[in-house]
Every structure is written in C-alpha cells, then in structure tokens.
Amino acid sequence: MALRRSFSTSIRRALLPAALLLLGARLLSADPAPPDFRELPCLDYGGYVFAASSELEGHRSNPLGRYGMHCIFDGDSYTGWSEGVDGPGVGELLWVRVAQGTDTLALRNGFARTDALFRQNNRIRRLGVSIWSAVLPEARVTELGPVYTISRVSADVLLEVKDTASLQVLSVRFDWAAISAETELREAAYPRHAEDRRIPARMERVDYLLRLEILDVYPGTRWDDTCLTELRAYPEEFAATAVYAEDGVLRYDTAWATGRALFATRGSVHEPVELSPDGRWCLAVEVPAETEGRPHTSFELFRIPHPALQLTEELFEVRSRGTIPVGFAIREEGLVLVFEDETTIPLQ
After folding, report:
1. How far apart are CA 129 and CA 112, in angstroms?
2. Whole-number Cα distances in Å, 59 to 54, 56, 95, 248, 303
3. Which residues of the chain have pLDDT under 50?
4. What angle do CA 220, 221, 226 make, to 5 degrees?
5. What is the pLDDT of residues 50-108, one digit of tens each?
6. Fold that domain 38-235 belongs to in CATH
7. Do residues 302 and 311 touch, judged by C-beta distance below 8 A?
8. So what's the pLDDT on residue 116?
9. What pLDDT shows up at residue 16?
10. Which of 51, 165, 222, 291 could cross-link to 120 by cystine, CB 3.0-4.6 Å?
C-alpha cells in the first residue's frame, strides 16, 4: 500500500507543472472581463449635461424642480441642490459632463442663501470624485437629454471640503493619459455590449462625466438635508470665448459649451464691459433691476468660471479714490486691470 501511494504521489507531482501550464494558457487566451457598462439618463439644460441620484421634492413630471441639480449651475446663491433621501445623503451621486483634462472644482458649499440657512442644513465634508467614459449611442437622446452608456475609467480622488459658504477652489489631479487609454478600451468593448443589450452599436460620440459621491457631511442644526449651492468643473487651461448678458444673467461660452451662467443676483443685472485677453477675467457693470431716477452703477470683477465676485483689498483701495476700471492689458508683469488714472492691479 505504501508503494502504491508513493507511486501515485510521484505521478501527481509530475503532472502538476503541465496542468498549471495548461491552466495558464487558458487564462491568457480567455477574453478579458467586460467593462461594467450601465445606462445613465441625463438632463441637458443651461449649457450643462448632468444627473443626480436624488433631489428634495423631486418629481418625474418636473425634472427642473425647486432643489434640482440645475440650481448649482445658475450662478445664483439664492438657489441650490438638495439630496432627497432619508438621512444625510451619504452615498448620493452627482454627475456632470466635463471637458477632457478637467482638474479643478470651484464650489459653494451648503445652502448659501443666508447664514442661517447655511447652518440649519447639512454641508458636504468629504467627496469622492472620479471620471467615467460616457458613450452616446446613435439616436439615444430624449427630449430631456442624452442617455449615456457609462463605465468607470479612473479611481476615486478624495476631497476635503471646507465648512464655509464662500467660494472654494479644489485641485483634482486625475491621470488623464491613463483615462484616455481606459476610454479606448471601453470604446472597443462597447459594440459587443450593445449587441447583448440590443441598443445601437454605432456611437455618436464619447464624452466624459465627473461623478461626485457624498462621503461625509457637516450636520445641520435643523434639517438633515445636504445641500450644494454652486459647482464648476474645468481644466486648468480653461478660457471663455465670449461673455454676454441674457435674461438678467451674466453668461459665457467656451470651446465646448454655450450659454453657461457665470453670475446672477436678485434685484440687479450685470452688463459685461470687457473679457480679458486670456479669457479668464470679466469686467462688468452692475445696474439695479428697478430704480427711480438716475440708477447707481458699480463695476464688478469676475474670474471665469467662478460663480462669485472677485474683489481684492487692492481693488477696494483703488475704488475708494474714486477712479474706475477701464479694461485689461498685457504688461511686463503679465495681465493687469487698468483704471482711468492709469493705475493697475495684477491678475493671476
């Protein structure tokens, strides 16, 4: 019996390397795991394409509800998005179409209409952000917007968000070379997925979506609703191609989008004076919407696409002397804002 057991063991040991080689060959020749495709219907409104996992008081018959995601793109601190699930909204998602190379977020946290409402509602403490490829199949656009076939092409980047209603700018360093390579793999795998799902195999285009997941919140003193007032996502080399006023809102165009809101406020309107040569700054005049007699006007400075006034201490000092800005110029020190008395302020 011992002899037989020893012989059997020897056979198994001799055959084991061959079996492992055969298994390895099968694994190498097998098709790679298909990407985790899923469908995402989006809204196309106000120069943005976006989607939210929930919203407060949301209703299917009115996709632009009182606290819908479109409110975070309108440039108005009076409005904002609020999640609509039980509890603080941890795990809720926001999606927005972005340009390739996007690496910056500008946002106003919470519900910033008033200081009291800001404290009474939850604010975002931590976000997980990632990039997803978004295939738009042929004829997959509804009256509301595109229906994408999406898949993840980056890992999450974790962001800490400050507990303030003021504008904050966050750097998000994605590996866009790796993202582009992953996106090509998704494009190659898409026709097979389309055949399996019986959706159009032809692609109109492939876009990128930024996904933002709420990971933690600052608790409100009264309500358990997590809010966000404004959001912008853009690449470092961002530049506006035009700035104009429309329906009381200061708007801008870029190479990839038109009609985006820069700034809006209740009781006044803004008229652009000049767009800087680099497409990053705008000088505008604020005029009361309704007034008796001669209206009082004031000049305002904006850094596009930030949805907030850009007022520096130096600008306040120049204004206090009674002089007014007249436009932008390129000087030896770089881009400057020029005033009528020929004083200047450098802009970075």
Report:
1. 22
2. 10, 9, 18, 28, 35
3. 1-30
4. 20
5. 999 999 988 776 778 999 999 999 999 999 999 999 999 999 999 999 999 999 999 99
6. Jelly Rolls (2.60.120)
7. no
8. 97
9. 44
10. 222
HEC per residue, the chain: CHHHHHHHHHHHHHHHHHHHHHHHHHHHHCCCCCCCCEEEECEEECCEEEEECCCCCCECCECCCCCCHHHHHCCCCCCCEECCCCCCCCCCEEEEEECCCEEEEEEEECCCCCHHHHHHCEEEEEEEEEEEEEEEECCCECCCCEEEEEEECCCCEEEECCCCCCEEEEECCCCHHHHHHHHHHHHHHHHHHHHHHCCCCCEEEEEEEEEEEEEEEECCCCCCCEEEEEEEEEECCCCCCEEEEECCEEEEECCCCCCEEEECECCEEEEEEEECCCCCEEEEEEEECCCCCCCCCEEEEEECCCCCECCCHHHHHHHHCCCCEEEEEEECCEEEEEECCCCEEECC
**pTM listed for this prediction:** 0.86
- Choose among 319, 336, 318, 316: nearest CA to 327: 336
Counting beta carbons within 10 angstroms of the beta carbon of residue 31, is it exposed (0 to 12), middle (13 to 18) or buried (19 or more)? exposed
Q: How many residues does the chain have?
A: 348
Q: Residue ranges per domain, the chain?
A: 38-235, 242-346
Q: How far apart are CA 77 and CA 108, in angstroms?
A: 8
Cβ contacts of 166-171, under 8 Å, gap ≥ 24: 166/108, 166/308, 167/106, 167/107, 167/108, 167/230, 167/306, 167/307, 167/308, 168/106, 168/107, 168/108, 168/109, 169/104, 169/105, 169/106, 169/306, 170/104, 170/105, 170/106, 170/107, 171/103, 171/104
Whether residue 41 has a cis bond before it, omega within 30° of 0: no
Q: How far apart are CA 46 and CA 264, in angstroms?
A: 13
